[in-house]
Amino acid sequence: MTVNIYHDKDADISILEDSVICVIGYGNQGRSQALNMRDSGLNVIVGNMEDNYKKTAIKDGFETFSIEDAVKKSDISFILIPDEVMKEVFAENIKPNLKEGNTIVFASGYNVGFNLLDLPSNSDVLMIAPRMIGVGVRETFLTGEGFFSFIAVEQDYTGEAMSRLLALSKAIGTLKKGAIKMSFKDEAVLDLFNEQAFGPAFGRVLLTSINTLIDAGYPPEAVLIEMYMSGEMSYTYQKMAKIGLVKQTYFHSHTSQYGAMSRGIRYMKLPIRPIMENTLQEIESGEFTEEWEKRISKSKFKLIRFFATKQKINKLEKQVRKNLKMKSYDIFEEEPPTEEEIKVLEKISDEIKQFEELYE
Ligand code: NDP
Fold it and tell me: Does domain 5-182 bear CATH number 3.90.550.10?
């Protein structure tokens, strides 16, 4: 499979000099992308609800409007609101205010890739999905390092979609590092797979390690520092990204390398792969999205989060942080489900019981 990777030399920002660009949603991505585009010389306005985010946009010196008015005044609209509210906001506040030939830009492939939005056929539809959190999008723009992104063209109404995509990508700062072209759906699948396969598998391994050591009598303070609180792991991750997955092991002692590699083989035959393949298939087929779109899943989500707050590790971590004189952050409070929600969930009571037991 060939892959197209774009850099600064592939884009011409001057094609956007007469365009008005609105950033809808001045949150994590919105603020950073708006500031970067303005610093790249583009004409950027902000559309947001009346809230603290809007106040920040005003403080940052942007002209701000309601979402509807910002879209009306613009040629290009960046839709940088949370994916879960996109369907409603797009249908009610954005789509009716778009004009023929407008460009719509998303930062995630989820809604378009899984056909959850009713897109106007007379617009260009683009994606610039940073592989970087919002603060990093701004910081790496300022340092000149840039960040990776996945980019896509879903609709090319004007015939200029690709050159606009590259110009906007350059203005945001991602082409300094590189942008890979793919489809909206592929971006969404990769993102969901990381969240649903690697993330939980890693979390399970981490918790099992912690419990094994604590049950064997090692002090929780020492165990949590060893396993993640020192921040050493994130340093290893940075090294993996910078110099390579295996090469970074050279930064560890020979004892560490020998122990990890000789014992590593014990985990290689665990049947993780079929579970991951099944997860991938669920995502690719749209089964996951269909499930998440159902109302019952919102109640299920609330209940699982409630169980998650009850896990032993939360109490332990709180105590350890106190003993180590570290700042304590209250674990998110989740209300127990209402009678009505419990009734709805009775339909899947066996599944719910499993969560309750596993999160003990
Ligand atoms: P945020 O959670 O930071 O929210 C963005 C903005 O949306 C805020 O201004 C928020 O205002 C507004 N908003 C929330 N709900 C509504 C609503 N119902 N109607 C109108 N505005 C609303 O979003 P992110 O920046 O994290 O995500 C934006 C996009 O970027 C998403 O598509 C996401 O997938 C993508 N993305 C995010 C990354 C990240 O690191 N966060 C990385 C790469 C892509 P308020 O809170 O006041 O409601």
Answer: no
- Report in angstroms the alpha-carbon separations of 306 from 127, 200, 297, 299, 349: 34, 17, 14, 11, 15
What's the confidence (pLDDT) of residue 176? 98
CB 115 within 8 A of CB 137: no
Q: What is the DSSP letter of 14?
A: G
Compute the distance between CA of residue 236 and CA of residue 320 in angstroms, rounded to an integer.
Answer: 24
- Cα 29 to Cα 118: distance, rounded to the nearest angstrom: 23
Count of residues in the chain:
360
- C-alpha span between 289 and 116 (Å, rounded): 9
Whole-angstrom distance, CA of residue 22 vs CA of residue 41? 14
Q: Is any atom of ligand 1 closer than 6 Å to the C-beta of 68?
A: no
Nearest residue by C-alpha to atom 38 in ligand 1: 133
Indicate the domain borders of the chain.
5-182, 183-272, 294-360
Question: Rounded to whole angstroms, what are the CA distances from 164 to 121, 138, 155, 156?
Answer: 17, 21, 12, 10
Pairwise CA distance, residues 152 & 138, whole Å: 21
Mutate to test the pocket of ligand 1, among 22, 33, 49 (most ligand atoms within 8 A of CB): 49
DSSP per-residue string spanning 182-226: --HHHHHHHHHHIIIIIHHHHHHHHHHHHHHHHHTT--HHHHHII
β partners of residue 22? 45, 77
Report the residue among 28, 71, 79 best suited for mutation to probe ligand 1: largest number of ligand atoms under 8 A from its CB: 28
Torsion, CA 290, CA 295, CA 296, CA 297, rounded to 10: 50
d(CA 301, CA 350): 15
In this structure, which residue's CA is closest to atom 22 in ligand 1? 81
The CA-based angle 42-43-49, given to 5 degrees, is 125
- Residue 28: CB within 6 Å of ligand 1? yes
Q: What integer pLDDT is reported at residue 332 of this predicted model? A: 61
**Does 178 sit in the ligand 1 pocket, CB within 6 Å?**
no
Task: Give me the half-sphere count of Cα atoms (radius 13 Å) on the Cβ side of residue 149.
Answer: 36
Those residues of the chain that have pLDDT short of 50 are: none
